[in-house]
Amino acid sequence: MSFKTGHIGLNVTDLDKSKEFYQRVFGFTLAGESDHEGRRYAFLAQDGTLVLTLWQQSEGRFTAGLPGLHHLSFQVADLAAVRAAETVLREIGARLHHDGVVPHREGSSSGGVFFDDPDGIRLEIFAPDAAGDRPAPTAGAPTCGFF
């Protein structure tokens, strides 16, 4: 038996705001949605494949202090793609952790940007070659683990 990650489902507080965020930052396209009161959702796709489902059925903000999701990580081809995402994130005023592109750990060639969505859900966009010679934010600890 083998497993492959399917789509991701996230509870959000404001479907319209979250749809705009994920479409703008990730370039996802709207593959379907429901506007029925009390049952609002959106299916977001990339190249015709469902990637993310947003369910408007929560209140408050994501909290890292409870068991459950730590963060979602999305891989892109290279540093240029990470930088393009970082530009959009800065344009829309998203909360960036570590102030931009950083390596996954000290000496790592992989790295990316770490940020929050409108509900505070922690996200990462990284590339295998995005770290360059940048220092890690915390020596001796994985950057993606502590933000």
TrEMBL record:
Keywords: Metal-binding. Residues 4-128 form the VOC domain. CDD domains: VOC (cd06587). PANTHER family: LYASE, PUTATIVE-RELATED-RELATED, SLL5075 PROTEIN. This is VOC family protein.
